[in-house]
């Protein structure tokens, strides 16, 4: 009886260790730490719904002015109706307005300045979960995890900061990377301050302990 009990205890211990090792291995594979995101991609700002565009038509103030980009991504200006603006740079939009105005004005020269930056939806950074103010943020070049945390007011007292993660598209596929918010905020560990990328989703889970 004692021999059987001893063998059973050894078998259960070995099984527990094996399952623990497999669980740890699975976690490391599916959620690797985000340590180096590479150089910041070079990209011009793309206009998005919610932005405001200041349009100046040289020597034609009557058709100049500031207009909002509608939720459908289009703008309407004097002499130009329902022109697609979302997803374009300010230079591209200026050239499109020149083409539309050419029907009414000889050789129009247009300048577009974007104000009230929001950006396109697929480039916004979204913060969900136990952030103080969960929200979408316009991406800015060289934006870091610390910049995002400042913008959302940090995390709540219920957050499990070191279990947070960033969901990011890499080569067209979504991947999830671990980040260490507690180390960054509470311990001042600057190595935990990683670069952000357009379209990132920061997930801050709740602590159950």
Automatic annotation (TrEMBL):
BP GO annotations: monoatomic ion transport
Domain of life: Bacteria
Compartments, as annotated in UniProt: Cell outer membrane
Listed InterPro entries: PEP-CTERM_polysacc_export, Poly_export, Poly_export_N, SLBB_dom
Any Pfam family hit: Poly_export
Signal peptide span: 1-30
Residues covered by the Polysaccharide export protein N-terminal domain: 41-115
GO molecular function: polysaccharide transmembrane transporter activity; porin activity
Entry keywords, A to Z: Cell outer membrane, Ion transport, Lipoprotein, Membrane, Palmitate, Polysaccharide transport, Porin, Signal, Sugar transport, Transmembrane, Transmembrane beta strand, Transport
Topology within the bilayer: Multi-pass membrane protein
UniProt domain SLBB: residue ranges: 125-204
Family label: Belongs to the BexD/CtrA/VexA family.
Protein name: Polysaccharide export outer membrane protein
Annotated source species: Pseudoduganella violacea
